[in-house]
Batch of 2 targets.
Target 1
Amino acid sequence: MSAKTHALRNALTGSTITRFMGAHSALSAKLAEEAGFEAVWASGLEISAARALPDANILSMAECLEAAAEIAAAVGIPVLADCDSGFGGVGNVAHMVRSYESRGLAGVCIEDKQFPKMNSFVAGNQDLAPIGDFAAKITAAKEARTDENFVVVARIEAFISGVGLDEALRRATVYEAAGADALLIHSKIGSPEEVYSFREAYRGELPVIVVPTTYPQVTAEELAEHGFGGVIYANQGLRASITAMRTVLSQIGGDGSTYGVEGSIASLKDIFALQNVDDLLARQQRHDELTATYDALA
Ligand code: SPV
Ligand code: MG
């Protein structure tokens, strides 16, 4: 059992809503932790976008794993990894769970779409996987873990694919029976109406997570009042960095110097703190002291 899997499970089953901040790198995850979020979402969209690639299973599982493991290693809060539709068949899912668990992730989320998946907001194939096939993958994921607290989230894309509430509820019941630890209900409309209708009609026991990308007006408090167990701010950090970099880079180009942006960008001191440079310096100082001690013994 690891402290982080335990922390994620406790957070999701606790009485307050768990706020996940999306990350694409170790550095962005540290900023999420610094800002006080309870957990990190290793976002497939962010990790792909940081490599200027579509969020459509273009990256291999190994590439996604490496990015997620770097994120997990950088923070003390638990990280839930976005694992798309599980990277293939049931063998891929079992290998995925063993790999993500052994690299320090606190849980994985898999969505009930076909491989290769397409980001939920892209017009393109959003067809669902057959219900039994996906539920069997959830069971395979649970059977592959060695830490009983490792979290397996089943993500329902019924609203995204346009098949509606009844299908979402049918899937929720089966995924719960298959052993899912939590559900994620996704929606791409401009209000929380769909996810509220799901939360009200769902009679099961699992915590339900939402991703309010297209209904940003909703607060964490309102979601908690409606009975949700988690909220994922999936991509705002990456979007902020794109806007900030565009603004600063174009100003430098226009000004012909970096003077005008100096006051508005992170200092080198700030970067060194995020890199834990002080730890390195302390280690080097200890090395110098030990070297002198051992040299004296020689
Ligand atoms: C992600 O962040 O990659 C997600 C959420 O899966 S979404 O982009 O809304 O599909
Ligand atoms: Mg994703």
Target 2
Amino acid sequence: MLKVNLEGCKSFVSEEQYREYVGKALAALDVLESETGAGNDFVGWKHLPSINSKNSLVDECEQIRDSWKAKGVDLVVVIGIGGSYLGAKCAIEALKHPFSSLLSGKKDAPEVVFAGQNLSEEYICELMDLVRERNVATVVISKSGTTTEPAVAFRIIKQYIENTYGKAEAAERIVAVTDKARGALKSLSTQEGYKTFVIEDNVGGRYSVLTPVGMLPIILAGYDMRAMLAGALEMEELCSRPCAETNPALQYAAMRNLLYSEFGKKIEILVSFNPKFQYLGEWWKQLYGESEGKDGKGIFPASVICTTDLHSMGQYIQDGERILMETVVTVENAQRSMVIEADGQNLDGLNFLAGKHVEECNAMAELGTKLAHIDGGVPQLQLSIDKIDEYNLGAIFYFFEKACGISAYVLGVNPFNQPGVEAYKKNMFALLDKPGYEEQSAAIRARLAE
Ligand code: PA5
């Protein structure tokens, strides 16, 4: 079971201060539960584990998986950006064998690759090099149905699939996940006859990993969504309790807000000693950055993978400006085993490690880093799970979402909007002469000519 441990903060804060922030977090939880806070029409994600463990969504996703398997599909391109991309990417990166595409032997599931998360011409050309070699299908995900990055990628992939397999077959190889009524993607999908999954109005992009946005790619990649929902369901129950002793989301939200507001810890680094969690950092940064970074406030979310980044960011964390706190996601048990053998000559001087598992060295690196960073003035919050699997990932997803809603309300911002994201889009559309942006185009050109 997922647990929060705040021992690594004890030397920085008093019990009284922590209690005060637990009180704030309890009040914020009440606002979230009673749906009386800012953005309360976007809290549909709170009950997704219980709802989606009972309805037919997993079955429907599995049907697509089976029908594409019958066609011999060996590459699925998942198109989306932000919340329509990062949850699935995080889960698949955490669960897959990192070298699966290079290993020989029959694959049980198609390779899942991502597009539409950038506007790089090189990226899409190189992705198409792969697509042309494979038997391909695609899932296009956009809640608004109007986001430029996935729309550009989808136009390219759609044209390729239609040209390669014919229009009728293309309709069987394209699935859309979008709004039930609005947006270009919805109208296009209806016209072309694509199977479509709905993203409910009351679930925002970054809270959507437990909807078909995350479920369909995760199932297509061969993973067990029922187990993920079961892990999330356990957290749905625990994280709704108005009890600081048993609700891990309350504990985490209270401590990070205390460190931010009273101790100037303006940056929170999500740390993992397992490289499979690189994209957990990316998903978490989006969730917290978009939810909290507004109105001139918010903890800046960063992430590192150790021990890799101890040889780059480690210096700053230990010794740079003291505005950092860390949240370490500890994985207690490795699922593979490798013992370091003794060597007769001991030329590398490593015989002191003989007989130890590599993971024991990793665990000691983690503990040594924790002590060093605390000594260096970096408080450490810890989240632990017993192993990386679907169940624990479901728990992590739900835990962080719930804690984010609570945290943002403690901070006094709306956790569910993202007004700041529009600024770059307006400039980009003006620069690309999108119809309707004529005035902005003229203004931006005049500004650039100054
Ligand atoms: O969390 C969010 O709402 C955003 O990050 C969106 O997910 C992202 O902008 C993509 O939007 P859409 O799904 O509408 O294409």
